[in-house]
What does this fold into?
Amino acid sequence: MADFNSEFWHWYIAVLTVASILACVWLLRWMTSGFQQSDEAETTGHVWDGDLTELNNPLPRWWLGLFYITLAFGSFYLLLYPGLGKFTGLLDWSSKAEYEAEVERVEAEVGPLFARYAQTPVIDLIKDDDALRIGERLFANYCSTCHGSDARGARGYPNLRDKDWLWGGDPQSIKMTILHGRQAAMPAWEAALGGERGVDEVTQYVLRLAGRPAIEALADAGKTRYDMFCAACHGPDGKGNAALGAANLTDEVWLYGGSITRIAESIAVGRNGQMPALGEFLGEPKVHLLSAYVYSLSQQQ
Ligand code: HEC
Ligand code: HEC
It folds into this structure.
């Protein structure tokens, strides 16, 4: 692979650029020399249709002027800013340094504000409209790609506006979720349930748990399997377990869809939703504001 930091490419680019500029100057001078100071234009000797002659006029002055100005500007720019190979320019400007300065400026501005909010408990922050507005903007930046700009989620991405929580909806649990992420682990059950028939039976039992019409004979058989394989995580009553992120199966809120096909699929192949850990990336103060915003959403209904 070519090493673009090498001395060779540095000199290659620098020499080629300077040579091109000098060549332009030379070309301009060459094209403008040799004209006599007379108002009478020379002809090139080419004549068409008997009277159409090609004249050899000097280049217009305004055009030449523009060309020289462009060359001067280019040279001056290359002297001040990076452009000639590795030469960083007399101003020592770089896009990275500019970005870093910008980030530092914003941090200095909002840092103390965020720090003040970080001292306020989430319960109190949800009464502070300014804090919630900041939280909303942070949410749009960092969370809406997965949870939707209205926080209502999508299949596989939980709705954060309802009162149904996989991992707990109190301020502390929400904050833990954002800081450290969550990894849901629901194994695939098809093999353990003895194939499709077993999945069908348990699916019918899950429908019954959810209060929907179920085929009774299948659901009865499903209950035995449910108690054996599923109750450990989802609870004997199907109400779930926030410590494991195990969904409540009785409330008709479905992360992966509530049709019979979808429920059977969840059971047969398993589900492993992952919420990324964002504490390190965002920092505690931003996570605190985000927790307040998310908590406020579920308090609104
Ligand atoms: C080891 C714990 C564990 C066991 C055992 C378990 N589950 Fe789950 N289950 C979970 C978790 C965690 C989730 C949430 C997955 C996610 O969020 O990605 C889940 C999700 C589900 C869902 C999807 C819920 C939704 O909202 O879409 C269904 C349906 C389900 N489980 C049914 C079952 C059935 C039936 C069994 C027994 C055959 C079972 N689970 C056994 C942990 C478990
Ligand atoms: C890469 C996608 C992704 C991003 C980005 C993301 N999340 Fe999540 N989040 C998920 C998934 C997937 C889950 C569900 C995990 C599971 O199945 O248990 C989740 C779960 C959650 C939960 C728990 C919901 C419950 O019912 O307990 C909260 C709260 C949450 N996210 C908040 C946030 C916030 C706030 C942000 C932005 C700072 C964010 N998420 C960014 C994918 C994402």
Notes: The chain has a mean pLDDT of 91. The radius of gyration is 36 Å. The domain at 97-183+276-298 is CATH 1.10.760.10 (Cytochrome Bc1 Complex; Chain D, domain 2).
